[in-house]
Amino acid sequence: MELLTINNVWMMICTALVFFMHLGFGLLEAGLTRQKNTLNILFKNIFIITTGLLLYCLVGFNLMYPGFAEGSLGVFGFAGFGLDAVAAADLAYNEGYTYWTDFLFQGMFAATAATIVSGAVAERVKIVPFMIFVVIYVGLVYPIAGSWKWGGGFLDQLGFYDFAGSTLVHSVGGWAALVAVWLLGARIGKFKDGKPQAIPGHNIPLATAGVLILWLGWFGFNGGSVLSADPALTSLTLVTTCLAAAAGGVAAFLVSTAMYKNLDLTMFLNGILGGLVGITAGADQMGPTDAIIIGAIAGIIIVFAVRFIDKIKLDDPVGAIAVHLFCGIWGTLAVGIFGAMAGWDQFVSQLAGVASYAAICIISTFVILFILKKTVGIRVSETEELEGLDGYEHGMDAYPDFRMNEH
Amino acid sequence: MELLTINNVWMMICTALVFFMHLGFGLLEAGLTRQKNTLNILFKNIFIITTGLLLYCLVGFNLMYPGFAEGSLGVFGFAGFGLDAVAAADLAYNEGYTYWTDFLFQGMFAATAATIVSGAVAERVKIVPFMIFVVIYVGLVYPIAGSWKWGGGFLDQLGFYDFAGSTLVHSVGGWAALVAVWLLGARIGKFKDGKPQAIPGHNIPLATAGVLILWLGWFGFNGGSVLSADPALTSLTLVTTCLAAAAGGVAAFLVSTAMYKNLDLTMFLNGILGGLVGITAGADQMGPTDAIIIGAIAGIIIVFAVRFIDKIKLDDPVGAIAVHLFCGIWGTLAVGIFGAMAGWDQFVSQLAGVASYAAICIISTFVILFILKKTVGIRVSETEELEGLDGYEHGMDAYPDFRMNEH
Amino acid sequence: MELLTINNVWMMICTALVFFMHLGFGLLEAGLTRQKNTLNILFKNIFIITTGLLLYCLVGFNLMYPGFAEGSLGVFGFAGFGLDAVAAADLAYNEGYTYWTDFLFQGMFAATAATIVSGAVAERVKIVPFMIFVVIYVGLVYPIAGSWKWGGGFLDQLGFYDFAGSTLVHSVGGWAALVAVWLLGARIGKFKDGKPQAIPGHNIPLATAGVLILWLGWFGFNGGSVLSADPALTSLTLVTTCLAAAAGGVAAFLVSTAMYKNLDLTMFLNGILGGLVGITAGADQMGPTDAIIIGAIAGIIIVFAVRFIDKIKLDDPVGAIAVHLFCGIWGTLAVGIFGAMAGWDQFVSQLAGVASYAAICIISTFVILFILKKTVGIRVSETEELEGLDGYEHGMDAYPDFRMNEH
Predict the structure, then answer these.
(1) Is A106 within 8 Å of chain C by CB?
(2) C311-359 pLDDT tens trace
(3) Which of B39, B12, B45 is nearest to B320 (CA)?
(4) Would you kindly state where each structural domain of chain B is located, as residue ranges?
(5) Which fold has domain C2-394?
(6) CB contact (8 A) between residue C97 and residue A235
(7) Segment 335-374 of chain B within 8 Å of chain C by CB
(8) pLDDT tens-digit series, residues A338-369
(9) Separation CA B277–CA B259 (nearest Å)
(10) Going by DSSP bridges, is the β-strand pair A195-196/A191-192 parallel, antiparallel, or unpaired?
(11) pTM as predicted
C-alpha cells in the first residue's frame, strides 16, 4: 500500500508534467510562426488537448490496452466504450499506479502525437478539416498503433522496444506531419525560383519558453514511462534524458555555427528537442555516455534534416518533421546500437517497428487527408493565407491591443 | 512515518502547483486587458500573493482553523496571532501533512480569492484602495468565511460539502468581483448607446499560457484537497478535474461557435476554466461521466453568463464573474445532483452554503468598497483611465522598449 | 527501500524545479533588457544550461564531491572524469537519493551561478568570450569552490553553514557578476554627465513570469537541499522560503514607494528574489518570524544596493549584483544572527565563508576575463551595441515578424 502510494504520486506528477508539454508545444509553435496565424495555432493546440482527453476516455484507452487474448494477432482489439469503474476500484490493478492514473497518464500522451502535426501544417491548413483529422488520428489511429507495442500486440511479441515513445508518439506524429505537409503544399513565398526562403516566426522568447517547458515535461514523459517510482530506473532515466537534451542542443549549435557562421538560437532549441526525442526510445537502457552520443547525433541530424526537407521542397514551419520523425527513427534504431539491449537482433526488431509504424501512419494519414482534400479541402484560400488565418477563422487578432512605443 | 512522508511530499507538490496558479492568473488577466494597464494588473497580482501569504501567517490560518469548541456557533473563532511552534513540532499533527505544509497549502488558497477580483476590476480601479480591500478580504473575510466549512463551523455541521472550493474560494472571489464591478461602473467605452462593445485584450498568447498554467495548478488545487496522497482518491480527482476541464472547453467552443459563427479562443479558454471551477466542489465524489457532464454544463454556462453580464451592463474585462461565480455556484449545487452524494437533502445543504457565502461576501465587499468609495474613491480619473494606469500609477510602461519591425 | 523511493521522488521533483529556474532566469533577463538584445540573452541562457550539465558530468561532479581524505587540506580534490557506474548501481549510496539523482540535482545548481552573470553583463558582452568564461567558471571554479563546503572541504570543517547556497551559488554568481561588470564598463548611455539613466527593459510581463517561475523553482532549490523528503524539515523549509520571498517583495515595494513615490513593479520583483536569496543559507534553521525579518531586510537591501551600484558607476541591467551578491552575503551572515544556529562563533564562521568565496571568485573571474579582454576582447563594438547584439551575433531578431496594429 505504501509502495503503491509512492509510485502513484510519482506517476501523477509525471502526468501533470506531460500535460504541461501542451503549453510547451503551443508556445513553440506560436513563436516560430507569423503573428497573423498565432491565434489559429493556439486554438489548434487547445482543441487537441481537450478533445484528445475526451476521445481517450471514450475509446482510446480501450483501443490501446484492449487486453489481447493469447494467440490473437495483436493487431486490433477494443475493450469497450468508456472507463471501467470495476477495474478502477481495484487497488491491486497495478503496483505502480491506479487505474485512474494509468488512464490519465496515457491520455496525456495521446494528444501529443496530433500536436506534433499542428506545427508542421501551420499557417495554411483549414482548421475544421484539421480538427476532423485530429479526432480520427488521436481517437483511432494513435491508440490502435500504440496497442501493437504498449498494448502487448504483435510488435511487443516481436521484441520491438520503445521505452517512452520515440516511435509510438513522436514518429506517429512525425509521419502524419510528413504526409500532411506533402498534401498541403508549401506556404506562399516559401520557395522562390526553387530556392527555400526563411519565413521567420514572430516571437522567439515564446519559442524558447516552449522548449524549456517541453524539456521539463520530458521529466514526466520519460520519467513516468518507468511506470513506477523505482529509484534506480527513474533517476537513471532523468539523467539520460537531460544529458541527451544538452548534447543535442550543443551539437546542433556547433554544427550549424560551423555551417552557417551565425549563432542560430532556433537550431540550438530544435537540437535540444531532437536530443530529447532521440533518447526517448531507450532512456532506461543507456548509460550517460550512450545518452550523450545519441543526443549529439540527434542534434546533428536536426541540422541536416532541416536542410534536406527544404531541399525536397517540403515546408515545415517549425521543424517538426526533423525533430519528431527523423530523431524519432534515430532514437528507435539507437536502442539496437547502444546500451543494454544493443545487438543485431534487436536492431532488426527496431527496424520492423519503424516500418510498421511508417505503414499505418502514412496510409491512415493519407487516406484521411486525401478524402478531406477532395471534399471540403484542406487548405485556406490565398487571400486568407496572405492576410492571416486569425482574422478569417477566428475574427480576432492575437495581439489586438498591442501598440508600439513612440521613442 | 513513511506514510506521512509520502503524503507530505504530495501535499508539498500540490502547494507548489497552487502557488504557480498565481502566474496563471497574472498572465490571463494581463493578456485579456489592454496594453496600457498591463503593469498595473501584474502589480496587483504580485501584491496579492505576497501580502496574502504574510496575512495568512499573521491571522488568516488561525481564523480559518480556530478549532471551534463543541457547542459553539461555529461562526467565528480565532486561535491567536502567528504560527504555532508547538503544533509544528508534533509529527502526529496529521497523518496527511505536517503543520507547516498545512499552513502553506491553505495560505496559497487564501490569496486566490482576491486574485479573482483583480481581473474583474481591471483597467479602472484605483490601486491603493484596491490594496486596502485585498488586505481586509484576504486577511479577514476569506478565512472567517472559510472557517464555516473547512474550519468545522456551522456549515460543516449542516452537511454542506465543498471539496476544494467551488464556493469557499471561487464564489468568494466571484461575489466580491460582482459587487466591485457594480460599484465601480463600466470602463469608458464599454457601452455605447446601451450596447456592449468588445474591448479586446492585448496578448492572447499570454492569456492562453495563463489558462494552461491554471489547469496545471488545478492538479494541486483539487489533488491536494484530498489532504493526503491516498492513491484512489487523488487519482480519481485528477481524472475528474481534467475531464471536466476538457468538456468545459469543448462545450463552450461548440456553443459559442454555433451562436456567433466564429472560433473564439477566449471562449474556449474560459470554458476550460469554467469546467475546472465547476468540478472543484465535488471532484472526489464524481465518476468520469459525471465530470464530463458537469464540465460541459459549466462550459455552456460560461457562454450565456458572459452574454448576461453584458446585458445587465456590468463590465468584467476577463470574464471572472462568469467563470468563478456562476460556475462556482453550479459546481456547488452539482454535488447534490451528481455522483456519490446526490440527493435532495444534500442539494438543500448546498443551497444553504451558497446562500451563506453570498451573504457574507456581498455584505462585506459592499461595506469595504462603499466606505473606500465615499472616502478615498475607488476609480481612477477619466484621463488616467484613457491614457492607461501604467503611466499614472507606476510611472512606467509594460513594454517600454518594444519596437516594431520595419518590414 | 520504500523510504529511499519516497526521498528519491522528492529529490527528482526538486531537480525538475531547479531545472525550470533556467526558464525563470531567461525570461527575467530578457524582459529587463532591450528588445534588440533579447535573442542574445536567451542564447546565453540556453548555452549555460546545456553546456553546464555536460561539464558537470565530465568533471564538475567529481571536483565538487571528491571525497577529501581525512587530514587533507580540503581545498582541491578530483575523483576522476565522468560518472561512476559502480556507485550508481549501489542503492545503499544514500538513503535520501540515488547516485543519478545526486548528480542531476547538483548539476542543475551548477549552471545557475553562470546564469546570474549573464544578466549582469547583458547588452554589451561579446558572446564567444562569454561562453569561454562560462565553460571555465561552471566547469572548474564553481565545483572547486563548492567542494570547500558541500564537498566536505575546509570551510565545512570550520563550521561554515550554507544550507542551499546563498554563498555557494548566489554569491559565487554575484562576485563574478561584479568583476565582470567592472571590467566590461557601462552600456553606452547608462551614465550621462555622471548621472545614471534608466534604460528600461522591453517586456515586463516576461520578467514577472520569470520571477514567479524562479520562486516556484526555489521550492526545489531549498526544499531539495534537505537532501531527503524528511517531512518536518522540507515543509519548514518551504514555509521559510515563501515567507521570506513575500516579505522581501513587500519590504522592497514599501521602501521604494516611500523613496521614489511610484509603485515600481521591478523593485517589487527584485525584492522577492532578494528575500529568496537571503533565506537560502538558513532556510532550514529559521522560524517563520526569522524568515520574515531576513526576507524583509533583504528587500530593503535591494532598494539601497541598486542605488549604490548606480552611484559607484557600475551598470548591472537586471540588478543581479544587488539580488545575488548583496542578499547572498546578507543571508549567509543571517545564519549567525537568527534561528537555531545564531551565535558569535557561527557569525565568524559565516564571515570566513563569505571572505573565502569572495577571494576565489574575484580572483578567478578577474584572471579569466582579464586574459580574454587583452586577447579577444570581451566587449562588442559601439556599432553593434547601438544596433543590438541580435542582428550582429545571431543574424536574427527576437520578434522578426511582430507587427503593430493600425488602430
Answers:
(1) no
(2) 999 999 999 999 999 999 999 999 999 999 999 999 999 999 999 999 9
(3) B45
(4) 2-394
(5) Ammonium transporter fold (1.10.3430)
(6) yes
(7) none
(8) 999 999 999 999 999 999 999 999 999 999 99
(9) 23
(10) antiparallel
(11) 0.98
